[in-house]
Structure formats: C-alpha cells, structure tokens
Amino acid sequence: MKAFILIIISLGALLISACDSQPEEQTALSDYKQQQLDKAKKVEQEMNKRIENIDQQLDQSTTQEDDDTQ
C-alpha cells in the first residue's frame, strides 16, 4: 500500500514538473522565432538598399546615355 502511495506521489510530482517546464520551452521557442524574424527583417532591409542602389545606377547610366546622344 505504501508503495502504491509513493508511486502516485511520484507521478504527481512528475506531472507538476513537466507542466512547469512547458512555459520555459514556449518562451525559448518564441525568443528563437523573434530572433529569426529580426534576421529576416535585416536581410530584407539590406536587399532593399541594394535594389535602390541598382535603380540609382540605372537612372544615372540612362541619363548619361541621353546626354551623350544629344
């Protein structure tokens, strides 16, 4: 009988400890997701800068060609 009670108490303790660790895992996962989102935003900003630079270079070369033909 004592062994049965100890098993029940042990299982209860395991369930409580498992439930307590779940929010920590969720926090770690959400932190990871936020880090990945921040990285993606930085990459997007860098790509937009490159596109703007290419557009400026294209406009400049087009302007120079127009000046040369006149």
Chain-averaged pLDDT: 83
Main β-sheet description: none
Radius of gyration: 30 Å
Q: What is the H/E order?
A: H
Number of domains: 1
Derived from helix and strand composition plus strand pairing, the structural class reads mainly alpha
Helical coverage, percent range: over 70%
How many E-type strands?
0
Note poorly predicted spans: none
Strand composition percent:
under 5%
Task: State the end-to-end distance.
Answer: 104 Å
Note the quaternary state here. single chain
Number of helices: 1
Gross morphology: rod-shaped
Describe the protein.
The chain has one helix at residues 2-69. It is mainly alpha-helical and 70 residues long. It has one domain (1-68). The mean pLDDT is 83.
Notable features of this structure?
mainly alpha; 0% strand; 70 residues
